[in-house]
What we know:
By secondary structure, the protein is an alpha/beta fold. It folds into 2 domains: 8-33 and 102-278, 3-Layer(aba) Sandwich (Rossmann fold), CATH 3.40.50.1220; 36-94, no CATH class. The chain has helices at 8-15, 25-29, 36-49, 55-64, 71-82, 84-94, 104-109, 125-134, 146-155, 177-184, 188-200, 213-221, 223-226, 244-254, 269-278, and strands at 19-23, 117-119, 140-142, 160-162, 202-206, 233-238, 256-261. It has a 7-stranded parallel β-sheet with strand order 3-4-2-1-5-6-7. Helix 3 (36-49) packs antiparallel against helix 4, helix 3 (36-49) runs parallel beside helix 5 (71-82) and helix 5 (71-82) crosses helix 6. The protein starts with 7 loop residues before the first helix and ends with a helix.
Amino acid sequence: xxxxxxxxxxxxxxxxxxxxxxxxxxxxxxxxxxxxxxxxxxxxxxxxxxxxxxxxxxxxxxxxxxxxxxxxxxxxxxxxxxxxxxxxxxxxxxxxxxxxxxxxxxxxxxxxxxxxxxxxxxxxxxxxxxxxxxxxxxxxxxxxxxxxxxxxxxxxxxxxxxxxxxxxxxxxxxxxxxxxxxxxxxxxxxxxxxxxxxxxxxxxxxxxxxxxxxxxxxxxxxxxxxxxxxxxxxxxxxxxxxxxxxxxxxxxxxxxxxxxxxxxxxxxxxxxxxxxxxxx
Length: 280
């Protein structure tokens, strides 16, 4: 099954510089970074091996980690058990560059004239791909850089928004339930700026999933921006990872229209095919 066709209104929005890109965890997983489940399991194992987590506690957390709805509570429990600073340091270590580098999808995206990129990933793949293709460093902001983010939007300058933090700033990584509640979504100015993105730009979601808590948390916090229609958004999603009722909910709740595809291999070559078609 080939990649879905590019919707005509998405193609026009990109051409007219009215489109933005949202990059989820799937694109980082393709480059070798852990999935949400893999990250949490790795943190539990490391803490248990280091004697920082009781065996019974570790076993209970491992048994619960297969449920995506438990990711945030488990992350909060690990933060409480390990101490916030150590927990964040371990998360940041999991997303260091190491031998990982941008994929062909990342590189190809840099030639498509999106107004800006938004990502909930902590790694440096988008920045590295941009620098590799454009021979310069992009402007990068996170949720603490509200004034810089606002200025870039106003000036219509390309930028990358690390919506939930950056590996280079571990103390500002958003991962636990408490983080989502107190560090980001209590920040009214930041929330309004995010809402303006989704009410004024056509957003294409790549590598995102309904099972990713960071995506669900962001969309829920911005629910008011989607109510009553408005700009249509799109999400390229592997067909077997989403149920029909979830497709319906994304459309009705957030005005995000799912573009399903069947992955022919574990590498999901259809994603690269779709991205190539964006620039045709």
